[in-house]
Design goal:
heterotrimer, B: MetI-like fold, C: mainly alpha, MetI-like fold, 10 helices, 0% strand, flat, binds adenosine-5'-triphosphate, binds magnesium ion
Chain lengths: 260, 270, 275
Amino acid sequence: MSSGEIAIRGVSKTFRVDGRPLVALDRVDLDVAAGEFITIVGASGCGKSTLLRMIAGLEREHRGEIRHGGRPVSGPSLDRGLVFQEPRLFPWLTVAQNLALGLENARVDVAQKKRLVAEHLELVGLGGFGNAYPRQLSGGMAQRAAIARALVNRPEVLLLDEPFGALDAMTRAHLQGELQRIWDHEKITAILVTHDVDEAVLLGDRVVVMAPRPGRIARILDVSVPRPRDRRDPDLIRLRNEVLQELDAIKDAAPAALAS
Amino acid sequence: MSLPLAEPAIETSSTASRGWRPSHRLRRGLMLPLLLLVAWEASSHLRLVDPRFLPPLEAIAITAREEIWSGDLFLHLGASLARNLAGFAIGTLLGVAFGLLLGLSPVAGRIAGPTFHAAKQIAVLAWIPIISVWFGFAETAKVVFVAVAAFVPVALNTIEGAASAPKPLIEVCEVLTFSRWQRIRRAYLPSALPSILTGVHLGLIYAWLATVAAEYFMTVGPGIGGLIIAGRERFQMELVMLGVVILGTVGFLLNHIATLVEVRLLRWRA
Amino acid sequence: MTVLDLPHRLPSRPISLRLLRPLVAGLRDFAVALLLPAVILLLWAIGSAYELVPQQILPPPIYVWENFRDMLAGGELLQHAGISAVRVAGGFAIGAALGLLLGIAMGLSEVVDDYVRPLFTAIAQVPTLGWIPLLMLFLGIGEALKIVIIAKAALVPMVLNTSAGIRGVPKAYVEVADVFAFTRWQKLRRLILPAAVPPIFTGIRYSLTKAWTALVAVELLASAEGLGYLLVWGRQMFWLDTMIVAMVIIGLVGFAMDKILALAEAWLQSWRIDG
Ligand SMILES: Nc1ncnc2c1ncn2[C@@H]1O[C@H](COP(=O)(O)OP(=O)(O)OP(=O)(O)O)[C@@H](O)[C@H]1O
Ligand SMILES: [Mg+2]
């Protein structure tokens, strides 16, 4: 897999809210190399989800250009998997059937499909819950199922919108490890949005810090700490503090914007 | 739009959760009906009321037995149920198809939606006379009318259901690059199903009432409605009462069956 | 809320245009909505002009319109509609009032509910269509029959919604009232009745709809006046224009009643949320 690079050039997005324009993203430029792990942090409402949805191809009307493997993104593709901020499981399907949705348009036979679904259920620790309905899952279990659904057809690029937000610390640490393992093993490109700065520096090759109103990239930090990483690594902690400082600076620069 | 409909007995949760022992409540509940029956028996035996108006209960039982033994009752009931089912099936199929078209296609919805919503306001019974002009008094007209009665609630609820598929799930379909047909099958239809079933449930009850109404008005051929009208014309109160009891009982049973089916098909809900 | 991608930092458009947009969209929807009726009317007109359908089966639209005009000018239409309206008003008033009282009693008192509900359910289970021939034998086919039938149809949803509404007052509020040591009367006035207003209103709406359909049923089966009778009469005389006029009027009145009550209900709900 070599075509996992993403190029974002001069991307702006304006929503209309109650007839007034609202600039959600303002001239965003970002190059993501194939196999890179990018994490994005930023205040609520600064356009992180919007950016991810545009990369996925859900949000088609915008200025600027997004390319995946050299080709312009014109709509969703199975090569780019998206884990939404909420689980979005289909309530009338069992967990296993929800996972199988991810393979609906993949070229695999029935036996392979069954095996892949079972493997990915195990992967996210839902081995015994294939036949459960979404309403029988906790919030964190549902989110894990959603992650498995995005992973199951092995996209070149995996887009994750705060995937671990609803999880307890233990499960979160476990899934962070699993995600790193899968990313490393499959050589996929990962772009992960998070509010958790520790998570951002732990997982990312680079951390993108975004600022709100209008949404834009404020700074990009390199995380040149070798893997496997330990979250207690002093270099990581130093980086974390740097990211936090950056976020504080953004907040102080525009207190009025955050207040509204 | 609706027929004069029997209210399905709604079991409110508060009724169930109250503290009385069931036997106690049962005793209270049976009090009024029993008193009523005793008063009925007494007044007809003591000739307080003309028994032609209020025949004693055993007279109704005797009539019922005669009708059963002669096979007439089954003939009437069978005829009614057959046209009920035929009309219901036609109305439901057309209703689901029409509802899906309007619910899934914005263009179709905007063109035909307002006309449908305006036309449904005509009380269903008001269609009987004109249908009898167009289709005669025989079987066809009755089935057509029953189909119209079932069509309205089915179409209405299908439109609502198909249009109500949650946007977040549609986006999941987009991300998974589902085709239009896959989206319909995987997202629109399942999320419309509860609503469709509500419509079919209502359609079943409306169809039954429409069957009887059609038989009242177009009295050719056997049927429970015809039985009741015949009883009224011959002033046979027993026959009328028997017919009305059957009318209510069949409605009750159909409602019950529909509820069971609904619960079974919607297991995925909490 | 529309999602548009506008050029970056567009100067906001003149306000008048922004306000006009929904109006224009509304007009366009309205025009589209009239498309299908227009096509049907056209086909109908063409069909009868070229006598593709016999006049006895479907009279030309112009006949229907003239018939409507004549009936309106001659006062017949208003007379029949008036009779129907009086019947509905009377039956609905009686049925809804009794239903309200019975529903309140059943909602407030478990004893009353225990005694009355099974009998009520049994009566409600027999549809209006079943009661009509039965009561025709008791009451004849005079006004009493119509009033009783319509009242019964109106009573049932009223009782169900009122009692459920009163029973459904959230327990949390009742506990607040208990903490403040409200008397029974205070609880009823300050808590239970206000909380039960929306479901009671829903009951009124259903009640009126049922009353209207019951009117059509009873006038079809046993009447010599009223809109329902107009249908039967038209049927006997093979006057399809009269039948169509009656059907349209029945639809329009049902539509108007439902719309007005729906608006009132929405207004009531918003008032409750604000207050
Ligand atoms: N469909 C939409 N229509 C109008 N405005 C929108 C829409 N989606 C997002 N926005 C606006 O765009 C801005 C960015 O939203 P977005 O969801 O991308 O933020 P976010 O960074 O993901 O926030 P969070 O961390 O809270 O998830 C917000 O101001 C939001 O109000
Ligand atoms: Mg977000």
